[in-house]
Design brief:
The protein has helices at residues 3-55, 58-61, 64-77, 79-111, 113-128, 131-142, 147-170, 174-182, 187-209, 211-224, 230-239, 243-271. The protein has 2 domains: 3-55; 62-271, Orthogonal Bundle (MetI-like fold), CATH 1.10.3720. It contains 12 helices and no strands. The protein is mainly alpha-helical. Helix content is 86%, strand content 0%. The chain is flat, with a radius of gyration of 25 Å. α4 (79-111) packs parallel to α7 (147-170).
Length: 281
Amino acid sequence: MTLREVTVSDGAEVLARAAGRARAAAARERLLVRSGIVLLGAALLLLWEFGAPLAVERRYVSSPSEVATRLVELVLDGQLWGHIGVTLGEAGAGYLIGIAVGLVAALVLVAVPALDEIAGPFVAAFYSIPKIALAPMFIMWFGLGLLPKVLLAALMVFLIVLANTMAGVRGISPGLVEVARVMGARGGGLVRTIVLPGAAPAVVASIRLTFSRAMVGAILGEFIAATQGLGYLIVRSSRQFETATVFAGIVVVAVLVMLVNAAIRAVEARALPWCAQEPRG
């Protein structure tokens, strides 16, 4: 074996050992984080089970065991699935509408700077309005059906997608745009090759995390006026002092949002693995 072969072999062995140590360290870190999550979760549940009743009347805070029992009852008697279907339908429709309208509006405002200057103060003012103040108005305008909940969900998504898309487009280097124009990119070609790829991280980040806002909008509408949905279940149960049912509904909402966000992240990781920006708003 020559000296060169020995050197290459030793280098490969060193790299393999370093990679093995890095993988072992990453595995230990993941185990530590997951163990911490489990321990913290268990501690919070124990505090809720045994500590909360010492500070607050038990019927107002329920307990994890009572919530779990009530959740099983709701699943078994079938009524929970209807509420889940209604709320997911409202939130899903509002989510898609909000994304589509937000993207189109942002591209129009960026393409027409004068229009952006004119609309800017109104968008900022509308963004600052508490959305809970709009919920009763939507119910009065659009009735008691699904439409006001869908529109509230779409509004919650639209504002964040609009703001993040515009921020992403404005973050594109002007020099890059000028170079593309010199190379002959115009109109739709410029948008397709420079603007959309440049704004993609901000857009994808807002799309990834705005489903929770869509759920908030749908449930907010159900709080005001509804006969079905998780928001209706929570409000009805709170009026009847069924605290375990209230917490069961909250747990279901949280689990649904986490599952949908995980699915969106999985799609994003496969389709756009380079996008890792966090949204604003």
